[in-house]
Write a structure and sequence with these properties.
120 residues, Alpha-Beta Plaits, two-stranded antiparallel ribbon, 24% helix, elongated
Amino acid sequence: MQTRPRPVKYRRKNKLRFVHKATKPTIELRPHQVIIRPLVTEKGTFLSTKLNAYTFQVSIHATKTDIKNAIQEMFPVRVEGVRTMIRHGKKRRFRFKEGARPDWKKAIVKLHPDDRIEFF
């Protein structure tokens, strides 16, 4: 059985649908606004002792260069690289209401082999 083609007014306009423009972020963040808190976990302590990399929770609007500059201003260290990931919030329920925890951004900052950050 052959189906009819979709009418023109219902066809998707793929060319207009996925247009990504590289824009400069408009939010100016200070170093204490970029770094929210260090993440002290089992995996994070392993990274800091073996690979000299530290994990931080950062602002969702911060870029890698913002994070690098903030770490170098707050701590007297040299940053070699920054890796970021956005962690999506888990779904939560309270009685009859559905909700979700907020999304947050995690950054793994690799330091120069001679530098260390002491949290405690």
